[in-house]
Hints:
- By secondary structure, the protein is mainly α.
- About 65% of the residues lie in helices and about 5% in strands.
- The chain contains eight helices and two strands, in the order αββααααααα.
- It has helices at about 5-20, 35-50, 50-65, 85-105, 110-140, 140-150, 155-170, 180; strands at about 25, 30-35.
Amino acid sequence: MHIREMTQVALFAAIMGALGLLPPLFLSFTPVPITMQTIGVLLAGGILGARLGAMSQIVFLLLVATGLPLLSGGRGGLGVFVGPSAGYILSYPITAFCLGYIQSRFKQLRLGPVLLTNLTIGIFLIYLFGVPVQAFVMNIDLLLAMKMSLVYLPGDAIKATLASFVVYKLQAYPVFNRRLLTS
């Protein structure tokens, strides 16, 4: 691994921690808060690519596991990996990897396909892991957990749109454009 790659991985782990400084929004009917860290996952996959994006999220989760309060609301430690948010949190590296992989297959990075990928694959993967774990930990029916998660969709759509725009705009800068760095 090159110094530049290590720096990028560390930078995005730090960005995730910085996004955790923004206070979470707790809803009365679910213990899973609305946070801004979802946007960091989408950015990591889109900007760093599959391998480095996933690595940045793994580094972030390892820091959280050591007890650093990097999750929104100052949460950290091993307890967060067995709580209602565990599935959402554990989906971060997988989501970043899949987004980076799919977006690397685009011949040209355009806003529309990036947005579509973030809205469908990105958000879907986070929910695919998060909702069943939330249902299991809360001991509720999966269908009820799915219904409860519908409240997150508008905010996640906004975050996916914002992340897509940033990924699209940053491709013009060689330091952020994987295609220019590898050629």
